Amino acid sequence: MHRFLVRVGKAAAWVISTGAAVGVAWLGVHAVLGAASEPPRAVQVSEDVSDGPPEASSTRRPRPPDDHESSESSMESGTSGIETVSTTGGEVVLLIGPDSAELVSAVPKPGWEVRTREQEGLIRVIFTDEEGRQASVTVLCAWRDAPPEIQTYRG
């Protein structure tokens, strides 16, 4: 009888310790996968650093261009820095150099998907809606034989 109780005690200890280990492992995996499933958010970088209060107009977002118009970047030719392009489909952040550009991030808004294509002298970011309206917004950055130029198209 004594041996039976010892075996039952060992089995119970094994079941409890195995259950605890599985529970801890599940919580760890769930925490990692839960954080990985959240979409990344673009951080707006501003080169203007001031200690005073923001101006009233600094909170206004740029108006998206008309369907058949293209808008060019506000950066002057030959300047370098971070350029953020906000569209109806999402936000694109580019690192602009004097003779090249690099895609930092492309984050779609809820209900939109993003595709990127990079090749020599060109970065193309296309936002398409997921709701079947066949709407799209394209951000192009080209720098072949010229300083980088950013254009936005709606289609």
Q: What is the topology?
A:
Elements lengths: L1 H35 L34 E2 L8 E6 L3 E7 L4 E8 L3 E8 L2 E8 L6 E7 L6 E6 L1
Antiparallel strand pairs: 1-8, 2-3, 3-4, 5-6, 6-7, 7-8
Keywords: Membrane, Transmembrane, Transmembrane helix
Organism: Streptomyces millisiae
Protein name: Secreted protein
Describe the structure.
It is a single chain. The protein has 155 residues and is an alpha+beta fold. The protein has one helix and eight strands, in the order H-E-E-E-E-E-E-E-E. It has one helix at 2-36; strands at residues 71-72, 81-86, 90-96, 101-108, 112-119, 122-129, 136-142, 149-154. The strands form two sheets. A five-stranded antiparallel β-sheet has the order 1-8-7-6-5, with no helix packed on it. A three-stranded antiparallel β-sheet has the order 2-3-4, with no helix packed on it. Strand 6 (122-129) and strand 7 (136-142) form a beta hairpin. Residues 56-77 have low confidence and may be disordered.
Shape: elongated
Strand order of the largest sheet: 1-8-7-6-5
Q: Would you count the extended β strands for me? A: 8
CA radius of gyration is 26 Å
Could you estimate the helical fraction of the residues in percent? 10-25%
For the largest beta-sheet, the strand count, sense and barrel status come to: 5 strands, antiparallel
Low-pLDDT parts are: 56-77
Helix and strand sequence = HEEEEEEEE
> Hey, roughly how much beta strand do the residues contain?
25-35%
Number of helices: 1
Mean pLDDT: 77
Rounded to the nearest angstrom, the distance between the terminal CA atoms is: 82 Å
What structural class do the secondary elements suggest? alpha+beta
